[in-house]
């Protein structure tokens, strides 16, 4: 019984090393083929999204200033009386 466990363990270790070697080869080929450019495109997209967020925050501030303006409130009260 002890020999059976040792045999299974040896086979598992061998297949583990083979699988790891195949994975490393795949990962190396992936990096050589330009997977590194993915990081730069994600950074560019991040910068664009930050710029868009700042633009939208500015627009929200303008809308908030319009809504909290006293003239706007007065116009709304007059319109609600009609």
Describe this structure in words.
This protein has one domain (2-81). The chain is 95% helix and 0% strand. It has helices spanning 2-67, 70-81. It starts with a helix and ends with a helix.
Euclidean distance between termini CA atoms: 95 Å
- Count the E strands: 0
List SSEs in N-to-C order.
Answer: HH
- Secondary structural class: mainly alpha
Q: Nearest-angstrom radius of gyration?
A: 32 Å
> Largest sheet, if any?
none
What fraction, in percent, of the residue positions are helical?
over 70%
Oligomer: single chain
- Strand residues, percent: under 5%
What low-confidence regions span 5 or more consecutive residues with pLDDT below 50? none
Shape: elongated
Number of domains: 1
Instruction: Figure out the total of helices.
Output: 2
Average the pLDDT over all residues and give the rounded result: 84
Salient structural properties:
82 residues, 0% strand, mainly alpha, elongated
Question: Layout of helices and strands, plus pairs?
Answer:
Layout: H1 2-67, H2 70-81
Entry summary:
This protein has helices at residues 2-67, 70-81. The protein is an all-alpha fold. The longest helix has 66 residues, at 2-67.
């Amino acid at each position: 019984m002890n020999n059976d466990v040792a045999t299974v363990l040896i086979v598992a270790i061998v297949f583990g090393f083979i699988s790891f070697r195949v994975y490393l080869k795949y990962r190396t080929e992936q990096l050589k083929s330009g997977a590194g450019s993915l990081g730069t495109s994600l950074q560019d997209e991040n910068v664009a999204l930050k710029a868009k967020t700042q633009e939208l925050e500015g627009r929200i501030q303008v809308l908030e200033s319009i809504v909290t303006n006293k003239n706007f409130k007065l116009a709304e009260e007059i319109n609600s009386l009609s």
